[in-house]
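Hi there. Long-time user, first ticket. I'm pasting a complex I've been working with (about 855 residues overall). I'd like to know whether the download I got is complete or cut off, because the file seemed smaller than I expected. Thanks.
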Amino acid sequence: MKVIRGTLSLVIVAALAACGSQAPAAPAGATSLTWAVETEPITFNPHQWAQNKARLLVFNQFDALVARGEDGSFVPWLAKSWQVSDDGRTYTFKLRDDVVFQDGTKFDAAAVKANLDKLREPGYNPAVASIQLHAFDKAEVLSPTTLKVTLKEPDGLFLDFLSSPLAAQVSPKSLKEAKDLKAGGPDVVGTGPFILDRYVKGQEVHYTRNPKYNWAPQGSAHQGPAYLSEITYRFLPQAAVRVGALTSGQVQVIEGVAATDIQSIKSDPSLSFQSALNSGTAFSYYFNTSHPPFDDKRVRQAFREAVDLDAVLASVYQGTAKRAWSIVAETSPFYDRSLEKTYGGDVAKANALLDAAGWTERDAEGYRVKDGKRLTVRSVASAPYVRDRRDILAQAIQAQVKQTAGIDFQVKIVDQGTAQKAIEDDAYEIFENSRGDSDAGAALNLILPEKAAINRTRYADAELDGWLAKASASSDTEERKALYAKVQRKVVTDEAIVFPIYVPSDQIAASKNVQGLGFDPVSGTPRGAYDVRIAA
Amino acid sequence: MTAAPPRARRVPGWLAVAVRRVVSAVAVLWAAATTAYVALLLAPGDTVDILVGDGADTPEIRARIVAEWGLDRPEVVRYLSYLGRLLQGDLGRSYQLQRDVGEILAGQVGPTVRLTLAAAAVGVVLALVLAVATAGRSVWPRRVVSAAELVAVSVPQFVIGIVLLFVFSFSLGWFPVSGAADPQALVLPALALGLPVAGVLGQVLREGLERALEQPFAVTARSRGLGERAVVARHALRHALLPAVTLAGWFTGVLLGGAVITETLFGRPGLGRVTMQAVTGKDMPVVMAVVILSAAVYVTISALLDLAYRLIDPRLRSA
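Hi, the file is complete. Here it is re-exported in full:
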């Protein structure tokens, strides 16, 4: 079966090469592969990008002004170099002059300005306009290769934004003429190494190599066009089906491997397996501090002490999940390692804390009671966001806190509307969430400040807000590190408003002969297909 | 009725029936559209919340979204403008996918039609063959088939699909797991979707056949020297078909509902998958379009069923 399929694709590729007279000199022979992915993107327009799981597709089709190296530093991409003024408010970019969009439009300073202006257009992407570009004032074209961006105030996250999918460069022609600009697709083009030429909704998206591509970011494994002449991403939402498709040779690469399948893939000599921890925030339970019982710090601490998290993670994820100790994922440079092993898993302490907090009585079912009210905490999760068996994880925690401390933890998985309603009505005690932002600071800004968009702890602390604001404005990594360390100690240790659980990870499994697969160093999600090749 | 002007009597019967059918079809469609609209209105969660999504939520963003989607107009106005646009064939724009709903669905109807027709064929053919082969026969084959039917009916579609995939795709490699263009890729999903239908239909048909075979007309037919096979094919089957045809409306529901699971499992494009995505994301325009489309399918099928009754049962022709 494998042999036949391989020959068939060779024939197709040969036929394609014969048709196109301008067929490029392929760097490593003409090759194609099929990659099964879990998530079908809601949109192919990078400016509308919101799914970390779709990140691997964005940089196939698009490039950004700056990239990030393995160590997280910013490196030149479509921008050859840049200068930041001393007050941190003016960025002057020198752009490459040899870049063309896939529709033939030349890439220049005017194109970058068109992208930035488009992002600020009302209704185009209101979230980006008001968050990532909150400090943006104006962009000026000084010459075709020079662009000056002025900010209203210093913004330490501006380059991070420019390196993100949201700031990937779309052809100005597409911005003007595309029929469904927000949905993206074949008529919304970029400068990337692959051209999206076919999208079958619900089934697959197909790319062919951009033969002119010669502007990979500095530090890439190779330069020039991509190795693969074609790549198909097939949307297979079921983990078991993806694994079956891989082991039976129907696809060559899969992402998103269930914990239960990892061992069998690792032991298969014809397959390779790799995984990486995601960036951003750890998957955590956030305690709602606005009303009982979690308005009492002792109850928050008791909940964390009541769970033997190592045992829970081992049983739910068979040893494949990495325990989190801080709200910040450990891949981030801001991660505070000193928090490790400072709390959790002390049942005696949990019960002492609850006794001290007045939850001394027990009802017939063994739950703690205070003033006739049971110690009940509710978690409301929106089904579309439940992944990684987080429902099973919640059930395991539920069983533990009941058994060890008499806490009634109720877990509900509901539709998005119901979840939002519970949040509006303040009818929850635990909110579960992880974020994949490439800069953990950006995630903290959304979660911790009093007025933050997803502040579900309802915790307000002026000092904390001050540290976060200061850290966001700064571009000095050491200064930010010190500030975020203070933030983490406050929310994890001093106030215990968060219960970090595990660091989400991504997995790739592939046939052994597929090489060059890897993870985006910044997000920890699978990289695009630019460096991927098939060994002879 | 007596007060009706004499001219009305000149309207031919078939035309009156047709008119009545069209009117009731329109009423059903209107009711479906309205029910869907009201249900989604009453469902928890504010549309603006859905459109804002997981990210930034500021009054400024909310105001922009409200203006962009016209959510500031009174409910009645929005309902009427929705009906108005519907009449013009405009199904609206998806909140989530940012494309015209009509366009999204148009691309998905084909794969789902192919899948459900194939599954229906699997269901009907299997049921017919098994029922005819085992009705009134010796106990053992009948028991085995009947047990198999029970399994097909009771096991969740998802499990049937997974088992089929593991055996025929992952282990034997006979069929690919996904793809809509390739006819080979249709086999497993059609089986997964069609087997439960075959299970129910087979049981109903066999029971009908056995009852018919005991009727005096079957005895008469046999006494005329007809072979058992001919008795079944020419006489008993027609009687057994009536209850089975009644079930066809129910199958439409099973097939459309099952398409959601089957399409997701097999990575096939189609209405089921789009619906799933739309419901979890509270993408109202898409959900409503799917509801209306399903209602239209039901109406069409029940009209066809009426016709089928008349063909199968001569007594109904004069009614």
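A couple of notes from our side: Chain B touches chain A through 55 residues (CB under 8 Å). The mean pLDDT of chain B is 80.
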